[in-house]
Each structure stands twice: as structure tokens, then as C-alpha cells.
Amino acid sequence: MEEWLKVAHSKDSNDSLAKFRSQFYIGSGSYYMDGNSLGLMSKAAEESLLSVMEDWKRHGIDGWTEGERPWFYMSERIGEMMADLIGAEHHEVLATNSTTMNIHQTVRTLYKPTEERHKILVDELNFPSDIYAVQAILDDSGYPNGMVEVPSENGHTLSTDTIINMMDESIALVILPSVLYRSGQILEMERITEHARKNGIIVGFDLCHSIGAIPHDLKEWGVDFAVWCTYKHLNGGPGSVAGLYVNEKHHPHKVSLRGWFGNNKETQFDMSHKFDPALDISQYQVGTPHIFSMAPLLGSLEIFEEAGIASVREKSLELTDFMIAMIEDVFEEGEIEIVTPKDHDARGGHILIGHPDAAGINAALKSKGVIPDFRAPSYVRIAPVALYNSFEDVYNTIKILKEIMDGRLYKKFENKRGVIA
Question: Which residues bind pyridoxal 5'-phosphate (predicted)?
């Protein structure tokens, strides 16, 4: 193990992103490996939230247009800050709603079913909320049996060929995750999109586990829409307002879910009962934006602007490479299953490991100061984040995991998930 510690120290000494670690609140004596569920608070996010609260204190209602960070345009401003992370134009990106609400908004707007073409292609490994939303839309559209799920051969990953082969003339819309939330597999978004476009199919992606961890080129690829949360790799805080991308070619279509903040800002306060939609992504807003749930993003996204997503991705791969190499070296073959694909092009920002006593292992890790998360039925996700985790953090995580496994310390804990896994 000591040799691995030397390797960690060497990598940390050459880490160009190491300076950002001090900008985050990291608990003393703990190794936070759950940034793909909830990112840590940064000092920049704290400052921007306090700044917006100060504007409320000083300006009252005039904070909507005055103060350091005017609220009336905050959704658009944050959208501009996220645009480079997904490879889109500024006027195509917005901070608004939640991920699930944005699925309802975009799919209900862009889905145009006919008797011949009304099915929506999803996958059997996706996060359940996406599936709930799609099923509700199909129910409301009169096609309750219109959902088609891409199967997984191994229960962990999806085949691009299988996805493409299922895009027949009955498919009207495709919505898939960019990175699978359990296994961490990256889907071949460009290839999937290319095939969808050739066949006249609307295609969208859920970027919850990829934005802030990997680069994207959604506009260049021709993706129609994308949704994502901002509290994972973007470190926006619990329940922070979600993100939305809609390709500008769809902006002339009036949105399905209409509300006063989707109105043209020049006429919004005319209070007309006739909806005058904004001419860009802004029309996808519905109600009054949740200012304090957006404010931390103003600070957290400044860190990404300075660090650069390419550098974040480079270090993220190095961290997970290091973790995989350690696991393969210090554990007996078959003792710990590495589920996540090892190929860089197919691997996101976290590693999924499997063991029959995974829930107990997860609890044991937490008791030793390592914070991962459990995923049923028998897996633990470990996510070292490039902006605030070091290679020594990864070393200590695997060292503690080795101690737990060698001493069977996980047997002291019930092999059952908590209310929140």
C-alpha cells in the first residue's frame, strides 16, 4: 500500500486543479466521495448566495432589477454560464424548474404523436423520475402503451447498436441518460443523435450525471433538447434549480406548460391574458424563479469558468484510473466487482463496485469517514470529484475499504439501505 501512497503524492504534486480544493468546505478527517449525488459547498457559492440575500436586504422588491445580481435575469445569466459546459449557444440554455419538470416541459412541447409514429424510446436502466414523467405524458396523449424500453444485456450498460436498431418508424422521440446513474457508462450521444436525425426522431438527453464532469457538444451533434440537475457535479446545493437546453430551431414552437415568466420580458408586466412567448429559451420558464435556489450557482459556475471542463475531465479520468488500478492490485480477483466500464470514452465521473454485502460495506465506509452511496441491490458508488478530491483521498478511500473487507467489518452493519441511500 505504501507504494500507492507515493504514487498519490506524486500525482497530487502535479495536479493543476489542486488550488481549487481550498475553495470548498471539506469535513476534517473525512473523504467525500459522493459528489455525483450532492456536490460540496464552495466558498464562491456561499458568497453569491449571501450577496443575493444582501440585495434583498438592501433593495427589497427593487432587487429584481437592481443590486449586484438582478433577479429578473438570473435564470438567463446562469444559463449563459452553463452553455459552454454543454456546447450550446447562450440563448439556448436556461436555469429553471427541476429536472422532472423540464422533462415534462420539453417532451410535452416537442412530442408530436401520430397513429403511425407515437412511441417514445427510453431505457430500462434510467433514473425512475424520467420514466414516470414520460409515462404520464403518454397517458395524457392517449398512448399509454407507447413507451419502449431499451434492454440491457448485463443489467449495467446499454449497447448503442441496440438503441439504434430500436429507432424504427414508430418512434417519435428518444430520451436517454448521457451517463447511466448506476454504472457510470457514457452513452455514444453523437452517434445516437446522428441516427435519430436521419430518421426524423426528436432526441434528448438527461445530463444529470455528466454535466460538470465531461464535455459535451450538443449543438454540433444536433441534439434537440437536454435536461439536468445542478446539485451534483455543478455544486449548486440541495434542490438547486435545474438546467435546460433547447436547440434554437425549436424556439418558434410555443411551449406546452405556460406561465408568466415564459412571457416576453418586454411585455410581461403588461399583464395581458394573451401569452406573448419569449423568442428564445426563456419561454420555457413557468412560474416565478426560485432565486435563493439559483444564487449559489452564480458562484459555483465561476469556478468551472476558471478551471475549464477539459481540465476537469482530464483529472477525473486520472482519479478513477488510479482508483481502478488500486482496487485491482490490493483485492483478490473477484473480491470486489468493478462494474463501471474502464474505457475512457465509456466512463463518466464515478465508479460502481459490487458485492453481496454492499449496503453493509457502504455503512462501514461511512463509519470510517468515507462518504460514498449505496445503490440497490448490491452496489456502492464512489465518486472522486476533480475540483475538490485529491489522489490521496482516493488512496485513503481504498485503504479503508481494504481494512473493512479484510476484517469483515461490514458484518457489524445491517445489509440494508437507509431511507435515503
Answer: 99-100, 127-130, 206, 209, 231, 260, 288
Q: Tens digits of per-residue pLDDT, 126-165?
A: 999 999 999 999 999 999 999 999 999 999 999 999 999 9
- Per-residue pLDDT reduced to its tens digit, 91-134: 999 999 999 999 999 999 999 999 999 999 999 999 999 999 99
Reported in sequence order, the residue ranges of 262-389 that DSSP labels E, i.e. its strands, are 337-338, 351-354, 370-371, 373-375, 379-382
User: What value, to the nearest 5°, has the Cα angle with vertex 249 and ends 245 and 250?
Assistant: 65
What average pLDDT does range 293-302 have in this prediction? 98
The alpha carbons of the chain give a radius of gyration, in whole angstroms, of: 22
Binding residues for pyridoxal 5'-phosphate: 99-100, 127-130, 206, 209, 231, 260, 288
Active site residues: 127, 206, 231-232, 381
- Torsion angles phi and psi, residue 287, rounded to 5: -95, -175
Q: What CA–CA distances, in Å, run from 290 to 25, 232, 237?
A: 24, 18, 13
Which residues, other chains included, contact 51 with Cβ-Cβ below 8 Å and sequence gap of 6+?
A: 68, 69, 295, 298
Residue corresponding to grid cell 465508479: 351
The three-class DSSP label of residue 241 is coil
pLDDT in tens, 403-418: 999 999 999 998 887 7
CA–CA dist 17, 64 (Å, integer): 35
CA angle at residue 115 from 111 to 117, to 5 degrees?
A: 50
Query: Does the pTM of the predicted model rise above 0.85?
Result: yes
State the amino acid at position 82 in one-letter form.
M
Q: Which of 131, 117, 251 is nearest to 172 (CA)?
A: 117
How high is the pLDDT of residue 256?
Answer: 95
Strands (E), 54-211: 93-95, 119-123, 147-150, 171-177, 202-206
Residue in the block written with cell 478513477:
320
- Domains, in order of start, for the chain: 2-32+308-412 (3.90.1150.10), 46-306 (3.40.640.10)
What is the mean predicted confidence (pLDDT) over 200-216? 98
